[in-house]
Write a structure and sequence with these properties.
This protein has 257 residues and is an alpha/beta fold. Helices cover 40% and strands 21% of the residues. Strands 3-2-1-4-5-7-6 form a seven-stranded mixed β-sheet, with helices on both faces.
């Protein structure tokens, strides 16, 4: 069997297991995975948590791969993968213990709108697990700024400066990214209590982009469900133009307050 990434984002099963341990979930939780792609996360949830998982995505090719994997694993009764637009999910309110918005799903859906809809879909006290690109420009805490001003006044605090070419690649003229502080504020303003937040390690980025590089160099060798939609311009923006110093991929877990 050829190697392929389990997740079409800078994520790994290990990262998701760690995040899920930070959320108190009932046994056999009902879960919804927005923009589920090839169903990798639904498979993990069903196999390891006994979850009943619904996944929605617009790519029929990816959904077919996910259905085949669920059937091969004997999990077809626990996993339903539906061709639906994550921006307009026709599912019953208050019916899920966990909603996942991974791989920048909220960047696509719209963060305020998506988080409000997720809150409606969650049962009371339900959880959301998010992964999204963020900028590394949260304000420096006043205590730190004051100490620097007092003890090292010759050292000004340097603002984040991302090259316009880097922003053009990652923002594509239409997206705007939060930083960790504004993401937390947004969640709290919409009735969530943030349980944790942490960035993925460099190894997750390298693993994701390794498959992207392979897809670029050997496009015919990439298996269905593992093609990474990343061009050489994004690899250059991240590794050559400074993107890796200005962006992070943040994992956030939150609960309906």
């Amino acid at each position: 069997m050829s190697e392929r990434p389990p997740h079409l984002a800078p994520l790994t099963d290990e990262i998701l297991r760690l995040a899920l341990r930070g959320l108190t979930l009932p046994g056999s939780p009902r879960a919804l995975d927005l923009c589920c792609g090839n169903g990798a996360t639904c498979l993990l949830l069903a196999e390891e948590l006994g979850a009943i998982c619904t996944g929605v995505d617009l790519s029929e090719e990816l959904l077919r791969v996910g259905r085949e994997r669920a059937l091969a694993a004997g999990l077809q009764d626990r996993i339903e993968l539906r061709r639906e637009d994550a921006r307009h999910v026709p599912l019953q309110n208050a019916s899920f213990d966990l909603v996942l918005a991974l791989g920048g799903a909220l960047t696509y859906v719209g963060r305020p709108e998506g988080l409000e809809r997720i809150r409606q879909l969650l049962k009371p006290g339900g959880c959301v697990l998010i992964s999204d690109l963020v900028t590394l420009d949260s304000p420096v805490p006043q205590e730190i700024a004051g100490a620097l001003e007092e003890k090292a006044p010759e050292n000004e605090i340097a603002p984040l400066r991302l090259e316009p070419a880097v922003r053009a690649v990652f923002e594509e003229g239409m997206y705007r990214y939060e930083n960790e502080e504004t993401y937390r504020e947004l969640l709290q303003s919409l009735g969530y209590r943030v349980e944790f937040a942490f960035p993925v390690p460099e190894s997750a980025w390298h693993g994701y982009y390794r498959f992207a590089a392979r897809s670029l160099r050997e496009p015919l060798a990439a298996t269905e469900g593992s093609r990474i939609p990343v061009g050489a311009d994004e690899l250059a923006a991240f590794y050559s133009w400074g993107g890796r110093w200005g962006y992070a991929y943040l994992i956030l877990g939150a609960r309906v307050a």
